[in-house]
Design a protein that fits this description.
six-stranded mixed sheet; 2 domains; alpha/beta; seven-stranded mixed sheet; 16 helices; Aldehyde Dehydrogenase, Chain A, domain 1; 23 strands; Aldehyde Dehydrogenase, Chain A, domain 2
Length: about 500
């Protein structure tokens, strides 16, 4: 009998009212390792009401005290980094070093959020008029929720809840039901850090739970990361219900390689960015744009690197890449490889031929590389979310920029070049939210904000950084004066629009 992963509500593990459960599988061996409770609307209501009840006390807690809780939480994450990484590897499949890197990037957002006493300061202007001062406050908005994907079960939730609770809000997290255990462990660590009961809650589930959160009248803000079709649904549904929304969608990230690029460096970086975590990253490189005559050498080099990768269970020492999250997803990605071949692309490296000793029941697919890909092919158009790189060839930087800008997604992109002029032109003209110059995965540090353009983001504000603080607070502006003998109260008697000059 597999362990059942429950909810975390009001500071404790909480049994579900719903009898529905889902399977949590170790994708390296294709075996169910535990089951997870799937919430119904009544379960969601219990969690949201617990968060709502905790809001008044938590929002009135001085920011410095909230900061101390987060600082202690950061220490506990550092102490339990390997434990969290093992949970990620077991349920997601990524290698242990990759999982440890994910935990580190989540921890950096906690560090950022620990500076909330400074981040939540408003502005002040003295004597905006005769004897009149004006100042603003950034105040918490209430119960917030995060709906997060399977590919980063620690990092993506940490984009959301540390900033939200630092600003005085309470939070209900709905992590992916495919790998729920890391969220539960973080909930326990938050309690150990001194977070009051009810401030952070976790419910697991599918569309039933998501819909209940999007419609619940006590939820004030919704953060989401996932595919663009679901991001649109979340954005439209939550906005229709009067909620503040940030919904991060899909991606088709391009790496432009100029003829003057350092070939070895670019090929290594692109292979790592395309095949790392089995390509299951929203910032993974999936389209390589070879400019000029560098294409042949670049394809040969990437194919050689990919063929040399060690693909195995994520806890295998020296593994470069683990399995995909599920059999369904592995078969879907494999279907794209079949389509690319039938559509006429040149298959330079075929991951379908991979054999993993001891992993015959696992969901493995090896690094795959296509050359001579054209924009109308499905392997170029669609977000594959797997270890598949597609090389498109163009003649000039201008053609490369136009190709990237025509794409419906605008999450991340990179250029590899030795030319400052080419890099400057690229970063100025490209219509993408996050840009790397000789950096293949330009994920910003926590004190900047993460988010794309076009179909990669629905909403106005990105996650974490100061845009995250703005998302999780609302501004109140106070204009005040204190009548005195020098400024008699009678000066306020007027039906004219007030001016303060």
């Amino acid at each position: 009998m597999n362990e059942l992963v429950p909810f975390w509500i009001n500071g404790a593990r909480h049994s579900a009212r719903s009898t529905r459960t889902g399977e949590v599988t170790n994708p390296a061996i294709g075996r169910v390792v535990r089951r997870v409770a799937l919430a119904d609307p009544a379960d969601v209501d219990v969690a949201v009401r617990a968060a709502s009840a905790a809001f008044s006390d938590w929002s009135s807690t001085p920011p410095l005290r909230r900061s101390r809780v987060l600082a202690r939480f950061k220490e506990l994450i550092e102490e339990h980094r390997d434990e969290l990484a093992r949970l990620i590897t077991e349920e997601h499949g990524k290698t242990l070093p990759d999982a440890q890197g994910e935990v580190q990037r989540g921890l950096e957002v906690v560090e950022f959020a620990s500076g909330v006493p400074h981040l939540q300061k408003g502005e002040h202007a003295e004597d905006v008029g005769r004897g009149i001062d004006c100042h603003s406050r950034l105040q918490a908005i209430g119960v917030c929720t995060g709906i997060t994907p399977f590919n980063f079960p620690v990092m993506v939730p940490c984009w959301m809840f540390p900033v939200a609770i630092a600003c005085g809000n309470t939070f209900v997290l709905k992590p992916s039901e495919k790998d729920p255990s890391a969220s539960m462990r973080m909930a326990e660590l938050l309690k150990e850090a001194g977070l009051p009961d009810g401030v952070f809650n976790v419910v697991h589930g599918d569309k039933v739970a998501v819909d209940a959160l999007l419609a619940h009248p006590m939820v004030k803000a919704v953060s989401f990361v996932g595919s663009t079709p679901i991001a649109k649904y979340v954005y439209e549904t939550a906005a229709r219900n009067g909620k503040r929304v940030q919904a991060l969608g899909g991606a088709k990230n391009h790496a432009v390689v100029m003829p003057d690029a350092d070939l070895d460096f670019a090929a290594d970086a692109i292979a790592g960015a395309g095949y790392g975590s089995a390509g299951e990253r929203c910032m993974a490189i999936s389209a390589v744009v070879a400019v000029g005559d560098i294409g042949d050498a670049l394809v040969k080099k990437i194919a050689s690197i990919g063929a040399g990768y060690k693909v195995a269970s994520g806890d295998t020492p020296g593994a470069d890449m683990g399995p995909l999250i599920s059999k369904v997803h592995r078969d879907k990605v494999k279907g794209y490889v079949d389509s690319g071949e039938s559509e006429g692309a040149t298959l330079a490296l075929d991951g379908r031929k991979l054999s993993v000793p001891g992993g015959e029941q696992g969901y493995f697919l090896g690094p795959t590389l296509f050359d001579h890909v054209s924009p109308e092919m499905s392997i170029y158009r669609d977000e594959i979310f797997g270890p598949v790189l597609s090389v498109v060839r163009v003649n000039t930087l201008e053609e490369a920029i136009a190709l990237v800008n025509r794409n419906e997604f605008g999450n991340g992109t990179a250029i590899f070049t030795a030319s400052g002029g080419a890099a400057r032109k690229f970063q100025n003209e490209i219509e993408v939210g996050m840009v790397g110059v000789n950096v293949p995965i330009p994920v910003p540090m926590a004190f900047f904000s993460f988010g794309g353009w076009k179909q990669s983001l629905l909403g106005d504000l990105h996650v974490h950084g100061m845009e995250g603080v703005c998302f999780y607070t609302r501004t109140k502006v106070i204009t005040e004066r204190w009548p005195s003998a020098a400024i008699p109260a009678s000066t306020a008697r007027s039906t004219v629009m007030p001016t303060h000059g």
